[in-house]
């Protein structure tokens, strides 16, 4: 089945609202080699929609890891929780950067489950790229 079309104007507004950066790792489009993808917070496979309120930007890598998932297990408590919603939740309330500026640390059950499910801090390629960005003074984001 073909995916429903997202109008160009809706995609443009999502990119502006998301400040043209990934909602999960905060990487800006100008540093990411591939185009940031429009991600369905509630996946179409789980009755999500193409409504603007259900769309955000994500690195292709994290969009693939997320796939059709909406929940994850907090590795600290074993509790099943909803994944982080970059459209409605504040990143700094659920995550922080480790002192090295490379690793994302989950602060809450939602943050820890999202780090685990999306492999935000254990994908080797992402960690190498972030380490180069740190060396260049481009990372981590200030906000």
Q: What does this entry show, briefly?
A:
This protein has helices at residues 8-17, 60-66, 91-94, 109-118, 124-136; strands at residues 37-40, 55-58, 71-73, 80-82, 95-97, 104-106. It has 143 residues and is an alpha+beta fold.
Secondary structure topology:
Blueprint: H1 8-17, E1 37-40, E2 55-58, H2 60-66, E3 71-73, E4 80-82, H3 91-94, E5 95-97, E6 104-106, H4 109-118, H5 124-136
Antiparallel strand pairs: 1-2, 3-4, 5-6
N-C termini distance: 39 Å
Q: Enumerate the spans where pLDDT stays under 50 for 5 or more consecutive residues.
A: none
Shape: globular
Classify the oligomer: single chain
Q: What is the count of helical runs?
A: 5
Strand content: 5-15%
Strand order of the largest sheet: 1-2
Class from helix and strand fractions:
alpha+beta
Strand/helix succession = HEEHEEHEEHH
Domain tally: 1
Q: What's the total number of strands?
A: 6
Mean pLDDT: 95
User: How would you characterize the largest beta sheet?
Assistant: 2 strands, antiparallel
**If you compute it from the alpha carbons, what radius of gyration comes out, rounded to the nearest whole angstrom?**
15 Å
């Amino acid at each position: 089945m073909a995916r429903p079309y997202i109008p160009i104007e809706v995609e443009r507004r999502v990119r502006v609202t998301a400040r043209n950066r990934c909602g999960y790792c905060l990487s800006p489009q100008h540093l990411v080699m591939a185009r940031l993808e429009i991600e369905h917070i509630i996946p179409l496979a789980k009755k999500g929609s193409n409504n603007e309120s259900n769309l955000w930007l994500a690195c292709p890598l994290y969009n693939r890891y997320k796939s059709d998932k909406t929940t994850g297990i907090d590795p600290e408590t074993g509790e099943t929780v909803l994944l982080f919603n970059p459209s409605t939740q504040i990143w700094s309330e659920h995550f922080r950067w480790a002192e090295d500026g490379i690793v994302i640390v989950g602060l809450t059950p939602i943050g820890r489950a999202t780090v685990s499910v999306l492999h935000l801090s254990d994908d080797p390629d992402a960690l190498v790229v972030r380490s180069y960005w740190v060396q260049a003074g481009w990372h981590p984001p200030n906000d």
